[in-house]
Amino acid sequence: MCVPDNASVGCVYVQRRYDDDLNNGVIKQYRDDYRWRPECTLDGQYAEKQCKGPYTEKRCLCADPSGGTIYGKAFRWQTDLYDTMNCKCSRRVWEMTQAGASSVTLHCQENGNYEALQCEDGWCYCVIPDTGVPYGAFLPENAMELLPCYNGTMTGVMYLRRCESEHHAHARIVDRMHDKGVLQGPSSVLSCDPDGSYSAYQYDLDGLYRCYDKYNNVIEQPAGGGCNCARDQKLYQESHVITTLTCETLDEALAGVYLPIQSRGDTVFCVDQDGVRAGPIVYAPYRGYLHCDKGTDCQNGNYTACEQVCDPCPTSAYPAYTVNQ
Question: Source organism's superkingdom (predicted)?
Fold first, then answer.
């Protein structure tokens, strides 16, 4: 039987601290509304799906057992993706990669759920997207169109998509060379997402990191540290969603990541690299008093840090406080 870790770290600890602080009146809504309650597994790890941020600004993301963000996310306004999200496929791909799999051909949806059609080692089968449990026959890939879950519009005539076709071919070459005793195969810098498309953050042969869309088109350059913001900006534009969130400036060579302190009208606030608000909203003159790292510590159960996210800040620094008085 697994016993949850009760040390001052981990999902159960953060969950209990949140519950205790909420029940004891320690959480001040005008200041601490960004704190969120994590979902934990029975053995005390972070569940596959986590919904972060204030209630009206929540964003759900897929997580590894330690709470780190992995592939798969959805905003509240992406109703279908948000409401059905379970992240089981994304977590399974993460587990296989951590176990050393050189090429994983499972296909996940944008929200981390399983796609209905899956193929591995030349054989294809249908799964229940909510669980990943297979059903029906296993057929060779060249007969996959006979499966009831086959969707020609989504899959086409080839199961592997453009990025993973390149990556999978390279991985097979390396594996065959290893079988023949050649330990150093040809290198590859290509990175694919679990839906088979190109990852956002790519290292190019000229030595620079750049941000790409899923079709391998450059959307921001150079990039140093990630491309979540660049990808999200493109999503907002394509979905006709108005946002004030901005990415780091080009001259700082961090074009793809979120600016840690964001502005909205006459207020400012911290965000994490998932674009989720990770601190209180304060009036712009208090920008210099924001300590975004303390917001992260507060979320992770350190109450002392909650007092230091905006320090020193009077209650009048918080718009939510003045509005509710």
Answer: Eukaryota
